[in-house]
Amino acid sequence: MKAIIVDDSRATRSVIRKTLLEEGFDVFEAGDGKQALEELKKTGPVDLALVDWNMPVMTGFELINELRANLDFNSMAIMMVTTETESSQVQRALEAGANEYVMKPFTPDVLREKLMLLGFARD
Predict the structure, then answer these.
(1) Do 81 and 12 meet the contact criterion of CB atoms below 8 Å apart?
(2) N or C: which end of the chain has fewer CB within 10 A?
(3) pTM as predicted
(4) What does the pLDDT look like over 10-62, one tens digit per residue?
């Protein structure tokens, strides 16, 4: 399984990376949505994208819209991982094509629960 973590915080990427590696993922990273698109165009689609909302250059919301509009990436599972806690923001992300939503701060166990809901985590 392959995953890309898209977050402008290196610390957040590190925490997510550790959990994903423990779950058997090969992990790629990007610091913003534009960098993620460039990486995905090189590597091809991944099984899972974990995307922060608030990033410079291209936001996570913009990235989700780009991914869902591109047939090459449309089937990827997308988890929004963000500090955006307003129910209207959650709804916007899900309507744009996010499959799951995790609010920061989170624990590795919360991340694993969401991975299980998406069919990725081991029991």
Answers:
(1) yes
(2) C
(3) 0.94
(4) 999 999 999 999 999 999 999 999 999 999 999 999 999 999 999 999 999 99
123 within a domain of the structure (yes/no): no
Residue 120 lies in a domain: no
Here the CATH number for the domain that contains residue 63 is 3.40.50.2300
**Starting from the edge strand earliest in sequence, which strands make up the sheet with 100-103, in order?**
26-30, 2-6, 48-51, 77-82, 100-103
- Interatomic CA distance for residues 41 and 39, integer angstroms: 5
